[in-house]
Specification:
Length: about 210
Amino acid sequence: MRIVLLGPPGSGKGTQGVRLSEIYKIPQISTGDMLRKAVADETALGKKVQEIIQGGMLVPDDLIVSIIEERISQEDCSEGFILDGFPRTVDQADALERVLPGSVDVTVYLNVPAEEVIDRLSGRLTCRECGAVFPKRDISPCPVCAGALYQREDDQKSTVEHRIGVYMKHTAPLVDFYRSRNKLAEVNGTGEPDDVFERIEAEVSEVISK
Ligand code: ADP
Ligand code: ZN
């Protein structure tokens, strides 16, 4: 099962990706997590992308495509994977079709209105260790792994609005890209995470039964 999670920043791709990964026993691949880890580890890649990420811009297509190509060729992806944060431009989606014969099975589009994602992002906390996200409350440390929670640099309000603009311009066209290929499952991404997950699972099992 090869699933792409599509939706604006803060639409719940990370949260739902973890659940899908547990149920279908396939890895969740989050380009945002991979890049943030590279920044934290101060690798050559991390140094290259740090400012781009903090400014809420996109890293170059060729760079991210080569990272994904390498990642999905690994053994643990042989039964499939969940892509969270990739593709993010039409060029990235084209590149994915080139490197992945048969393309993906389904793109789950988490539809959440812009006003709601702005509220979610500027309020949320992220775990430094495992990447899990939580609505801002006085929880700490991370209930999953006991790591420290922090507000991501790019979750500050000014950057959030910029990221949504970037999403509208570069990523939103992928809705039509996958719809025209009959690969789009649109899901209402508002409400409780459990309810959203049920909607997603209904779509994914329909694809499996085909
Ligand atoms: P979001 O909460 O916006 O979905 P992510 O954790 O997916 O955030 O990504 C954080 C940042 O990492 C992005 O704003 C961008 O700078 C960079 N990034 C992640 N994935 C990609 C990609 N596929 N192409 C280009 N840049 C990316
Ligand atoms: Zn954690």
